[in-house]
Amino acid sequence: MAGSDPEKLMAKADKITKLSFTRWNADWRNASVLYEQAAVAFRLAKNYEKAKLAFEKASKGQEMLSSPWDAAKHMESAASMAKELGSWNEVSDLYRSASQYYIECGRSQPASDALAKGARAVAESLPEEAVRLYTDACEILEEDGKEQMAFDLYREAAGIYIKLEKYEDASAILLRWGLAADKCDAKNSQCKAYLSAILVYLFAHDFKQAEKCYNDCSQTDAFIGSDQFRAASKLLSAYREGDIEEIKRVAQTGAVSHLDNVIIKLARKLPTGELDVIKAEANEEVGDELDEDNLT
């Protein structure tokens, strides 16, 4: 019986979607069912390459039937098959396609989730692409006014940047998280994000940027008066004075201990770089004006 043979199911589905002199209309409705049955059978047999192809064809069928939600679901299944195969570029592409179908449905949350799944899948093999996926996932939620749903995505993106030693990019995404938190009145998350960004700059021995970041963040009411603000203030003062013990002490305080682990690890290594050089640079910067506009 053809029903149990995925190869025959695929052949039948291909046949009824191919136009010819005798077939003027493709039968996508029946073909989609056949492709899906074949995909499930291939997956059970651990033939992931053919399962991926069958899920992609099932997705195409649902697209032709104007059912982007089902098309997205099948595309996510195809992506999971690519993951089994270790085809990391395909994993990214397929999750992006799934996300696009969800956007067609007007569903920002699953669209963002699809990109985040892709990011997690490729994080080890393609960290740069993972960051792009996380960033795009954040944008989808930001555009729909759902910034609060993106908090974990900002955090994970920052973690990858830190792993890649791209500290400026890590600080930028942390500040973006802070702005998103500000929009949804999540003051604690906002303050944590700002302190995290300052710590990352300090870890990268960029006192000038750390101080500029501190000054910019201090324009927001939520940050002023917070534990995170006090910790940042004490840290910068200790750097200006070249006080290694005070830097180490502040890095052990509660305000720092409640940040994400990846940030705590950086903070516990402070001070990095030549403290005398940083101290001299810090004291040159004392008279700098505040820039109220740059929070991004």
TrEMBL record:
GO CC annotations, alphabetized: SNARE complex; vacuolar membrane
Cellular compartments annotated: Membrane
One Pfam match: SNAP
Lipid bilayer topology: Peripheral membrane protein
Keyword Repeat: no
Alphabetized UniProt keyword annotations: ER-Golgi transport, Membrane, Protein transport, Transport
One of the GO biological process terms: intracellular protein transport
InterPro entries: NSF_attach, TPR-like_helical_dom_sf
GO MF annotations, alphabetized: soluble NSF attachment protein activity; syntaxin binding
UniProt entry tagged with the keyword tRNA-binding: no
Family, similarity comment: Belongs to the SNAP family.
Protein name: Gamma-soluble NSF attachment protein
Annotated organism of origin: Saponaria officinalis (Common soapwort)
